[in-house]
Amino acid sequence: MRLQQRFRLAMREGNYSLETERSYWGWIRHYIRFHRMRHPDTMGGNEISQFLSYLVVKRHVAVNTQQQALSALVFLYRKVLNREELDINEWKPARRRKHLPVVFSRDEASRAISHMSGRPLAVTLLMYGAGLRLKEALSLRIKDVDFGRNEITVRQGKGDKERITLLPQKAISILKTYIEHSRVLHEKSLAEGVEFVHLPNALARKYPNAGKELAWQYIFASDQLSKDPITGNTGRHHIHPRSIQKAVKQAIIKAGINKHASCHTFRHSFATHLLESGYDIRTVQELLGHVNVNTTMIYTHVLNRGGKGVLSPVDD
């Protein structure tokens, strides 16, 4: 079996996302080309250290990028080539800088949202109103929203974790609109004989008729059918994240907000504004899906209280 086939099999057995699979394989190809097309099985820790040092010294890549490249190569050697003895002690990773998140004020968030409509508005209300990541919002299925309990169940979040967060009241009306839109698209697909929807891991075997059920359809379903890259089946996936990212960026510019902001800034703002309102940090941690409260603690450094919450003498 070719290396790429072995790699793909190991990734899918480990239930890694398609995005991670593509990213890891990209780094592996880069690593092989760097060493002039030598097979990875003929190399080891020294060659990995050389490649990672090249990324730091010559390419000046960020620390997170270095870590991603390392993770891809460790996966290759340990999970694909079964080289458990792999040692890369000679490589010294760059120091990770501590970056404070960019956060909107309440007024800025409101102004940016006022310049949105349609799907970008609905998705942004979930990012700012429920703390969802962009991918989590787009991956929501109809069954994941409980209007009776005002809850949203986030499945396959970062780290393949599930959590429950709140359903913003201002998002209910527009969500129901897109659920209805998804229903119309689903009935059209069934009439055309299309009965496939992508299901993660082993759910496709557990629920073979899920593609026929409305509950499993994406809320933000694409208007166009597409071929699933894993199974090759044709079905209806959710909309592409780039369309939301572009609309959000335009709204921020129109609102006159001069910050290096993006979709994720609304999630940062969700956490910060909850802490400003006096909610317990453990509650915010659970809503965000952080494993460690120290990850949530970073938002205490950007609360709207000036530098470290101190009142300046000139304002006293």
Please give the structural blueprint:
Elements: H1 3-13, H2 18-34, H3 45-57, H4 63-80, H5 106-114, H6 118-130, H7 134-138, E1 145-146, E2 151-154, E3 163-166, H8 172-191, H9 203-206, E4 226-227, E5 234-235, H10 241-254, H11 263-276, H12 281-288, H13 293-297
Antiparallel strand pairs: 1-2, 2-3, 4-5
Could you characterize the architecture of this molecule?
This protein is mainly α. The protein has two domains: 78 residues, Tyrosine recombinase, N-terminal domain (DNA polymerase, domain 1); 196 residues, Intergrase catalytic core (hpI Integrase, Chain A). Helix content is 48%, strand content 4%. The chain contains 13 helices and five strands. It has a three-stranded antiparallel sheet with strand order 1-2-3. The longest helix is centred in the middle third of the chain and has 20 residues. It is globular and about 60 Å long. The termini are far apart. The mean pLDDT is 89.
Number of domains: 2
What gap, in angstroms, lies between the N and C termini?
73 Å
Order of helices and strands: HHHHHHHEEEHHEEHHHH
Overall helicity: 40-55%
> Which CATH architecture of the largest domain would you pick?
Orthogonal Bundle
Q: Average the pLDDT over all residues and give the rounded result.
A: 89
CATH superfamily of the largest domain: Intergrase catalytic core
- As a whole number of angstroms, the C-alpha radius of gyration is 23 Å
In CATH, what is the class of the largest domain? Mainly Alpha
The secondary-structure class comes to mainly alpha
DSSP summary, beta strand count = 5
Count the DSSP helices. Answer: 13
* SS strand fraction: under 5%
Largest sheet: 3 strands, antiparallel
As for the CATH topology of the largest domain, it is: hpI Integrase, Chain A
